[in-house]
Amino acid sequence: MAKKKSPELPYPKVKYATSENLLYPLDAMNGTKVTVAFEGMSKRHRIQLHWDGPPGAGTPTLPVVDGRASGSVVIPIDASVIGACVGKTIPVWYTATLDDQTQESYRLELTVEMIEPEDLPAPEFCDLELVEGDWWLDMRWFPGNARIALPKWPLIAAGQRLWILSVGNEHLIGNYRFAWVVENHVVTTQEAESGGEFELELSRTWLAGCEDYSSVTLNVAVTFDGAPGTPPVDPSVSLLPENGHELLHTTAKLRVTEIEEFDDFESYPKKEFLGPGSTIDTRLLKFGLPQDSHTGIGLHVVRTPPENYPEMLKGQALALCCGGAPEQLRRARLLLKWKCSRIRFAYATTGEGATFKFMGEGDLLLEERWVESRTWVNFQTPQGHLLHYIEVESLKHGSIDNLTIWHQGEPNPV
Q1: Cβ distance 181 to 201 under 8 Å?
Q2: Structure confidence at residue 5 as a pLDDT band (50, 70, 90)
Q3: Of these four, 166, 224, 270, 275, which has the most CB atoms within 10 Å of its CB?
Q4: Topology of 13-112 in CATH?
Q5: Which CATH fold would you assign to the domain 261-411?
Q6: Which domain of life is it from (predicted)?
Q7: Kind and range of the H or E element at 250?
Q8: In whole angstroms, what is the distance from residue 30 CA to residue 399 CA?
Q9: Closest listed residue to residue 356, CA positions, set 336, 39, 366
Q10: How big is the CA angle at 103 (ends 101 and 105), to the nearest 5 degrees?
């Protein structure tokens, strides 16, 4: 085949392009078409269009097409190609071969513009409450993590990458708090082709670390060409990748108020002398006796004189060492249904006292304490930790009553 010559054929023309070389992506939501036209085109010409965008979807493999006696051919370009080229300037050109002669066109430097902010979606907090005209993310009014929804953006396609960054304590310039909702997520075919929204969550524990009456903002970025993220411009301001195309952001005012709950154990059926492996289920906790412990536990009316102390204990209470041989060391567990920052309850016993172990995540011992009879037990977790359960070791019958817990709505699997 003869050697290619310098460009001598006219530029290709891209449908919807303004000024011939500017293409707004949403004008080509269903794809576009490229027209190749030059004098002398015949049916015997073999025409190869080149669309040299980013690797992958941005550089499609286009078929060779036959020329037409009319002097022009139209070649379709899929919408996924447009999406992969958002924000890029790409060469578009073609060759025309007749017999053993190949001619090359001038290259059209086509800019696929950025999508305007008003044409992009914003993430949404699903748990907002309207209070006196302002939208608040109030942790008192929803359990667990904060729910987030992100509508699908225009030209979404499998292989694109998504980042959603939460920013807290925005009033503390230079000391923002960051948390990833999703980081470097590769969009799947199912996500790209299905309707609906991305349904995501923001950690409740992270929210609880922000200041009360502060704000929290969700920032979103996408790489339309599926490229991995490049380092952020200024990590003290944002962790989003520099090469990400940012969507609209959402900001909500934040309340970080703890939930206070109380149980006096009066509403439960009587239980006594339960053996190893038994559990008593109450509203705020599960009271359990490990399989390797001695009998027993219960929930019944306080009835021994040392324990009957109306200022602290009266009516029904959780019962330690309920049945079984005397003077046997028994372990019981109070498995909290919420991860707590603080707890308070009354304790009394027919003996001298008991050992209470306050346990955090991963069976971490937060504090061990000897507690004497007729004591209000108050425990505040160390900073950065939450209370998951309490283990009690005792020799004599004892009662626990008037339980108050403080938490921020993060469930504790029990």
Answers
A1: yes
A2: low
A3: 224
A4: S-adenosyl-L-methionine-dependent methyltransferases (2.20.130)
A5: Jelly Rolls (2.60.120)
A6: Bacteria
A7: strand 250-255
A8: 71
A9: 366
A10: 170
CA 171 to chain centre: 23
The domains of the chain are located at: 13-112, 117-257, 261-411
Residue 218 backbone dihedrals phi, psi, to 5 degrees = -105, 120
Token digits for 363?
């069976």
Task: Annotate 157-191 with b (16+ C-beta within 10 A) or e (fewer).
Answer: bebbbbbbbbbbbeeeeeebbbbebbeebebeeeb
Residue 21 structure tokens? 């070389």
Joined together, the tokens standing for residue 214 give 């502060």
Distance CA 248, CA 235 (A): 19
- Copy the structure tokens of residue 96: 């025309």
Structure token pair of residue 314: 């009266």
DSSP bridge pairs for 35? 13, 74
- Tokens at residue 37, please? 């036209």
**Residue 201 pLDDT more than 50?**
yes
Residue whose pair of structure tokens reads 């059926």 in the numeric block = 269
Asked if residues 91 and 120 have their Cβ atoms less than 8 Å apart, the reply is no
Q: What are the tens digits of pLDDT across the range 176-194? A: 999 999 999 999 999 999 9
Do 117-257 and 13-112 fall under one CATH topology? Answer: no
Instruction: Look at residues 299, 311, 370, 380 and name the one whose alpha carbon lies nearest to residue 346.
Output: 311
The CATH architecture that domain 117-257 belongs to is Sandwich (2.60)
Neighbours of 378 (CB within 10 A): 10
Phi/psi for 207 (5° steps) reads -60, -40
**Could you say which DSSP state residue 85 is in?**
T
Judge whether 54 and 83 are in contact, CB under 8 Å.
Answer: no
**pLDDT, greater one: 209 or 358:** 358
Query: Could you tell me whether strands 134-138 and 250-255 are parallel, antiparallel, or unpaired per DSSP bridges?
Result: parallel
Average pLDDT, the chain: 94
32-37, strands of its sheet edge to edge = 13-14, 32-37, 72-77
* Residue-wise DSSP of 76-92: EE-HHHHHHTTTEEEEE
Give CA angle at 399 (396, 402), nearest 5°.
Answer: 160
Report how far residue 153's alpha carbon sits from residue 157's, in angstroms, rounded to the nearest whole number.
10
Please report, in angstroms and rounded to a whole number, the separation of the first and last CA atoms in the chain: 76
> What is the rounded distance in angstroms from the CA atom of residue 15 to the CA atom of residue 51?
14
